[in-house]
Amino acid sequence: MRRELASLIVLAFLLSVVEPLPAADIVVDIQHPAASDDTGDGSPEKPFKSIRAAFGRATPGDTVLVMPGDYGAKMDLHKSGEKDKPIVVRSAVPHEARIAGFDVAPWNRNNSFLRIEGFTFAPGETQGAGIDISLGDHIDIVGNRFIRCGIGGGRIRKGSEDVSQARHIRIAYNYMTDMAIAISIAGHDFTIESNEIFSLKLRGPGDADHARLFGIGHTVRYNYFHGTQPANIGKAHVDIVQFFDQNGDILRDLTVHDNVFFDFHQMFMATALKAEPHAANMTFTRNIASSPWGAWGVCAAGIPGVKVFNNTFHDIIWYGTGISRQRGEGVIQNNIYSKINQAVQIDQGATAVCDHNLIFQAKPGDAGKDNLVDVDPKMVDPAGGNFRLAPDSPAIGAGVGKVAIGALDYPNVYYVDPRHPGAADDGFGYAGRPYRTIAAAMAVARKGETILLRGGTYREAIVPAATAAGVVIQPMKDQEPVVISGADLIAGWTKTGDMWSAPLAAKPTAVLCDGAPWTGFTYDEDKKQLVMTGAEDPRLHTFEAVVRERAIDLTNVRGLTIRNVRTAHTAGDPVASGEDNHITLE
Asked: Cα separation of 412 and 396, whole Å?
């Protein structure tokens, strides 16, 4: 009775408050009959016709909301937001606003505190990068699609030293395909995370690479780069990350971790030839790298401070890790090298500490003595992409610090991130290619294993079976909060006459508009459609349908632990804890 009463109270609250639609910031709608850059005011009724006009009106804290349509040639973003008050330029419907690109630092202006989100960049053959960023500070490039274009930024040099001024740039959750070079940037403290780069293609002379990095303090993590075919790249030598210093460029303090890299010539290719040390301190850890036509895993020439540990290198033609030339120095530990001609090469005056690696179907080369050689790591199915360790793997506990050798933990840790463009429930739950749903992770996780959730909203209920007993579910460290929601997004809006409707399989318990209860709708049972009773474009807002009774239901499992998650927008009690389970809500 208490649970039923609570459900009625929640439902009554959801349905009792009716408010007008909130303001939609500055609206751009090239298809709106009243759109005008001269007479528009950025309202839904009188939107601007161009992004340029709307951005010119924006002040710190504003959002420029761009409706679906083709917005033409590349344009400049010529002003800054402020700390905690960025200017946001967002496609109202993800990927349905198309433009050739943005230059975020035109005319040598050091623009700062900008966020570019949800666009499709498709400049064609002649208009260059989708986003140019050679200057700027605290700029986020999030959730976009790049077609035949990438992200570029020119280098700025003072004498022989690279002093590029782009700083604190985040490139995250983007899907990039069909270009020769996906990312080429210079500056300080870039974070390149949770992107998918698929199928590079070279259409003329030149080279092709996933990322060319210059500068100081960059982090490359949680990415999925794959799908490039030799037939599409001509004579190009495709690297995941490439660096050369012959033009005076620098690359220092680089960290590359928790990525999945397939289909390349070299995972990392860097050569430092200058007498002064332009490159140093590069760390590669917890990466999975495999390419049956690839030549190298890590190839670092003339670079001190190279650390290669806890990676899995599989099915690469020539070498797993190489450190060469004078000044070349590093540490190579806890890696799996399998199905490779030679695991390690140290030559031309370089030095390295190399031990506690597992080498199988490969010559050890210069790996030294304290390694497991000719020992099968017993990965579950590497040919099928499953590089996890079987329970009887000799790699378990055999690394420095008694950790498992290779990129993956044991007991298993599974990652979930519904926002990652490369996420898939038919994968294996890697950090670089996570599961899309918690349900997929729970289907495989067993006692003693962990499911890590990337920050964000999960539109599903956690309802584990008995086989999940003893599993721990918790957020990744240092991420935004994890919210388990009882509401699904309402999408696919279409307009007929003056009425807007969207497909919905069943009548919702309640509808939310930008998180607040909303009753301005009817439900057409025959057409399975939600129909808005007002004329305003619902795509200007976030509409959700409350469809789940609970966020967490542990009645079928015992001994499961859930830590530090939030719940939201359920039709009834958000949690049913069951017996002997441990739940900590924020």
From this structure: 11
